[in-house]
């Protein structure tokens, strides 16, 4: 690790559970972020500032004026620009050492199988059930951990899936593909701006814990935030023996 890196990441290195070894793992890691909106912006900026070596950003959307209330990596001057390119600019302004790949297209099942294969961890910052099921399938196939979250109105959920662990449930254990939850959108329900920043930051924290191998991740635990009264609760869930996604070998 170079002297400049020792200085930049010194507050991580000072932590005994992180140290130079943990920071080196982070520097060598590759993270795929699916979604460059509110969650993706916050997660990407903290992962970049923390020194993740390579970030791949996937999103087919463009910056809109309505995004700027919560998607803090984008700016007024970038309205109309591809979100992945806008987010890349903010990442490199913060930490020019990070390598960034932009994929300005919509994630689908086939592409995710390829993208996930070449990464160490996935951050789910998307906004729909189908894409999460595709991420789940790809991560199971390639034994890759991923951090999932969602936020709407004043409520949010965060958890971690890690197929490398025998006791880890998968997304379909929690939300079976044949029983999709009712989906709502921020465009119809709204969302309070700082909540997505909180949740995206937690996603980055959980990702760093997995990458650097320290602390206890949210595997098997669903963290729930109710921002109106600032209540945080937790629901434990287990791997389901009848799960159609992870009970049958996929690789």
Summarize the structure in short.
This protein is α/β, with parallel strands linked by helices. The protein is built from ten helices and eight strands. Helix 4 runs parallel beside helix 5 (83-94).
DSSP strand content: 15-25%
| CATH class categorisation | Alpha Beta
| Count of individual beta strands | 8
On the 0 to 100 scale, the average pLDDT is 95
How large is the radius of gyration?
17 Å
Approximate shape: globular
Structural class: alpha/beta
Largest beta-sheet characterization: 8 strands, mixed
Give the CATH H-level superfamily.
Answer: NAD(P)-binding Rossmann-like Domain
Low-confidence stretches: none
Distance between termini? 36 Å
Helix-strand string: HHHEHEHEHEHEEHHHEE
Count of individual domains: 1
Instruction: Estimate the helix proportion, in percent.
Output: 25-40%
DSSP summary: helix tally: 10
Question: Order of strands across the biggest sheet?
Answer: 3-2-1-4-5-6-7-8
> What's the CATH topology name?
Rossmann fold
**Which CATH architecture would you pick?**
3-Layer(aba) Sandwich
Keywords:
Rossmann fold, alpha/beta, globular, 251 residues
Question: If you had to describe this structure to a student in words, what would you say it looks like?
Answer:
With 251 residues, this protein is of the alpha/beta class. It has one domain (3-236): Rossmann fold (3-Layer(aba) Sandwich). It has ten helices and eight strands. The protein has an eight-stranded mixed sheet with strand order 3-2-1-4-5-6-7-8, sandwiched between helices. Helix 4 (38-49) packs across helix 10 (193-212). The longest helix has 20 residues, at 193-212. The radius of gyration is 17 Å and the shape is globular.
